[in-house]
Structure formats: C-alpha cells, structure tokens
Amino acid sequence: MLKIRRTTDSDRSAISDIHMSAFGQAQGQEIVELVNGLLGDETAKPLLSLAAEKENTIVAHILFTRATLHHEQQDVSVRILAPLAVMSEFQDGGIGEALISEGLKQLAETGVDLVFVLGHPGYYAKFGFQPAGALGFAAPYPIPSEHADAWMVQELRPGVIGNIQGRIQCAGVLDQPRHWRE
Ligand SMILES: CC(C)(COP(=O)(O)OP(=O)(O)OC[C@H]1O[C@@H](n2cnc3c(N)ncnc32)[C@H](O)[C@@H]1OP(=O)(O)O)[C@@H](O)C(=O)NCCC(=O)NCCS
What we know:
- By secondary structure, the chain is of the alpha+beta class.
- The chain is built from four helices and nine strands.
- The protein has helices at 12-23, 25-39, 95-109, 121-124, and strands at 2-6, 48-54, 57-69, 78-86, 114-118, 130-131, 137-138, 151-155, 166-169.
- Strands 1, 2, 3, 4, 5, 6, 7, 8 and 9 form a nine-stranded mixed β-sheet that branches.
- Helix 3 (95-109) links the parallel strand 4 (78-86) and strand 5 (114-118).
- The structure holds coenzyme A.
- Coenzyme A binds next to helix 1, strand 4, helix 3 and helix 4.
C-alpha cells in the first residue's frame, strides 16, 4: 500500500537517493543540490514536501515551493512544483500521479490559487495543467521556444486564470537561469 506523508529532516538522504535514481548521475546531482537548497530556503516557504512510502521505504518525492506574482488588485497565492521524482524501479505505477493529486489537494485546502510546473506537457496535462505562456504568465526566465509548452499552470481557485497575468518570481534557490533551460 502507498502512504503519502510530509517529509522531515531525517528523510534528506532517502530523498537524495530517489532523485539520483530517477534523474541519473549527472542531472541527479544537480537536482539533489536544488532540493536541499530549496528545503533550507526561507524564500521558498511555505513549501510542501511530500514523500510516497511503500512498506516504510520512501520511493518518491514531490516538492512545491512558494512563488510570487505581483498584481495590483489581488493577492495571489502561487506555488511551483519542482522537482518530482519516482525511483526508477517504481515508475509507471501511478505513484507520480498519486503525489501530484495529493499535493494539489493539500494546496487547494490551504488557499493556494495557482500552481506552476516546468515539465513534460504530455504528463502534466493529465492533471489539469495547461501551457502558461499563452495565458499570460511569464516564467522567471525565458523558456527556449522548443520547450515553451513545458511551462504550465493550473488554477486551484476558479476564475484566477483570465483575470491575472504577469511574471512569476520563484524562490531564491530556483532563481537561476540554468533551472529554466529545459
Ligand atoms: C515522470 C515521473 C515523475 C512520472 O511518475 P510515475 O509514477 O512514473 O508515472 P505515473 O504512474 O504517475 O504515470 C504514468 C504515465 O506517465 C507517462 N510518463 C512517464 N514519464 C513521462 C514523461 N517523461 N513524459 C511524458 N509522459 C510520461 C507514462 O508513459 C504513463 O502513461 P500512461 O498512463 O498513458 O501509460 C517519473 O517517471 C520520474 O520520476 N521520471 C524521472 C524523473 C523525471 O523526469 N522527473 C521530472 C518530472 S517533470
């Protein structure tokens, strides 16, 4: 059975193992640094870090961190989903889906309006994400045109999309061009 729970500091090394397994040696190292940086980044808070456990072992991890969108008339609560990883031997079994769904549910319950992701359009469209650029939301850094559809958004409060546009500012650790290239 799959159990989803918030992570704690004692999960750090298990979380690193998951990202190394899912992303491979070269990219994995960069993602592990990103995750550790974000977990300690005050500008990323409030954040939501969830792990999926099978038989008391963590097999997947998802992180949502705070972002901002300046708008004169409305306060908008924004999060960015990054990263998500499922250990290679547990992929394609619905675990990524379970983590995304549970994360979005918890964020909606806490009043988050918009969630952004830079990821595989074919995968995230299944969860209600849609290309964000065409809706007027610029990424923190320009996304190369061949990956433009990978910058996606989902509203958790109906009526936000269409009424608000602008550039998203992310947490400090994520605020580096190299995290926005693909
Ligand atoms: C991408 C990832 C998070 C998906 O989680 P998962 O638990 O393996 O996937 P799920 O069981 O939720 O969903 C499976 C479906 O997603 C599809 N899928 C998996 N990886 C995909 C990808 N990179 N692009 C598009 N679709 C993908 C599968 O083909 C499958 O499709 P189907 O339901 O039509 O058969 C996971 O495979 C992973 O960690 N991959 C390596 C790391 C990575 O790329 N993370 C970044 C995500 S932006």
